[in-house]
Amino acid sequence: MADPAVAAGGSLNAGGRSGSSKAASSPAENYHLARRRTLQVVVSALLTECGFESAEKAAVESLTEMMQSYITEIGRCAKSYCEHTARSIPTLPDAVVTLIEMGFNVDTLPVYAKRSQRMVITAPPVTNPPVTPKALTAGQKRTHPPHIPSHFPEFPDPHTYIKTPTFREPVSDYQVVREKAASQRRDVERALTRFMAKTGETQSLFKDDVTAFPLIAAQPSTIPYLCALLPSELELQTLEETDSSEQDDQTDSENTAGNLINDDPGADKENSMLPHSGTVPSAKVSEENMIDNPYLRPVKKPKVRRKK
Fold first, then answer.
1. pLDDT by residue (tens digit) across 71-88?
2. Which one of 164, 165, 214, 262 has the fewest beta carbons within 10 angstroms of its own beta carbon?
3. Per-residue pLDDT tens for 108-142?
């Protein structure tokens, strides 16, 4: 078990502490790892009391496993004796009976505890438990009314049955709204430019690298001034709306005029004044067939006022 050539005299405690260098992840694994390291320190101290200057790592691990198994067996038997007497917490007599059943001489314990070469092991540093995040709190927790006994379970957290609306108020600041609209417009223009550059013909600033800084190729037209003469979609829409409103007004006026003619007793005289053919004069026909496009309508000369 002893091997002086392996490590120096003061390496027992250090070797015992570095038994398991792999970091644990869960709290349960951290607890077992700390307990294992403590047992390794105890085994190293007992070996030093017995006169050993160094020990192999495998020997320390074997002795640690034996001590852990021995202590676990003592705890299991003490719990069995405790439950046999209808108790839930073991006491000192349970541990004494367990040691006697395992063949240990209990009378030697006081003498062993008062030995002169006893080594005192410092307590391991106490680590603060991790802070658990606070649960969602909404409202005040309710207590039991007087008619409900206190041993009944408590009410659940208020956030489970209280309505908590979570919405943001709309931003009404003028500067923020303008900045957001400008950034959205810039993003849309940039996305549209990239789409047109990928799907259509492009021109590059650099002849070596065609993909760098692509520019949308300009398509020359035979009549470049035609776009300036033709009205835009917005103008066409407004013209259509005005034409439709004028037509509605005209039909309404015709309907009202027809009603007046039917009610007028002198309608026969007015009808006799119309031509026998029953056709509408050409002036009205020309007004109805007038072109809606303002750029294709006949030019109207401005009226010149004569100075008196």
1. 999 999 999 999 998 998
2. 165
3. 888 888 888 888 777 777 777 777 777 666 677 88
